[in-house]
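Minutes, project check-in

Agenda point 3 was the complex the collaborators sent over. CS summarized: two entities, 298 residues total, and the question is how they sit relative to each other. Sequences were read into the notes so everyone works from the same version.
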Amino acid sequence: MSVRLIVRTFSELCITIGALIVLFVVYVLFWTGVQAADATEGQIDSLRSRWAHGPVSAPPPRSSATPNAPNASKEPPAPAAYRDGKPFAMMYIPRFGKGWEWPVLENTEVRTLQKGLGHYTGTARLGATGNFAVAGHRRTYGDPFKDFPELRPGDAVVLTDGTTWFTYRIGRKPYRTVPSDIGVIDPVPRKSGFDGPGRYLTLTTCDPEWGSSHRLIAWAHLDATQPVTEGKPAAFHS
Amino acid sequence: MYGWIWRHLPGNAWVRALISLVLVLAVVYALFQYVFPWAEPLLPFGDVTVDGSTGTGGGQ
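CS then shared the predicted structure for the full assembly.
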């Protein structure tokens, strides 16, 4: 009788663990994507509504941490620092499909990357001299960089901060490295083929697709800019 | 253990079945809402940055 009880309890335990694993796989493969779609939508909405209300370079003085507030009215105001964890730009990569659009948020913490792409804090601003570095999920949370290895030299990476379109061009095929190789997001990234200061962009994601042993890196340089009032850049039509 | 739970639920078979369903849904909700979001970042799918804090170590 007690043997039967043990066997029964053991089999129930196995079934329970099996069900747990199946549920977890559903969560990782499917539910994180649903959540990311939701979160991304919210970020894009907040960006669009912010862009609709006044220029981006002069956000409402909500942060109160701007020391140069007093006599900034005459000169063009210094660009406001990106707010931690908040979206500040949209990224489009035509190679990944027409509908591929993701918000870029400030910092690369786990919670931030669940809502969109993350800009490495401390790297250059969008369009500025230096290296504008962005990380994104390869898998889970909407799979933004799923097709990362498809990037080829000349591919466009288009970004907008609400006032300007920035078109970056990929310089070489994605480069595979180890996670500790922080030189890839240097102002003049090592191994990128760029040899002097310039306006660069770096994308990073994980490799292999479901692993974390390596990173895939793509570098691009600023090719063109144009005000949003002049419509979408030509890179969308190529 | 499921037999034990079943025996301790009140009412007839239909009521018990209904309560069981509610219990199962509650467990699944708790898993998706609290347990899995906690467990998922422990897996390597989110390591997409080059900060050296994961993987081979080193860096910052």
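Noted in discussion: Chain A has one domain: 2-56+84-236.
Follow-up: revisit at the next meeting once the mutant set is ready.
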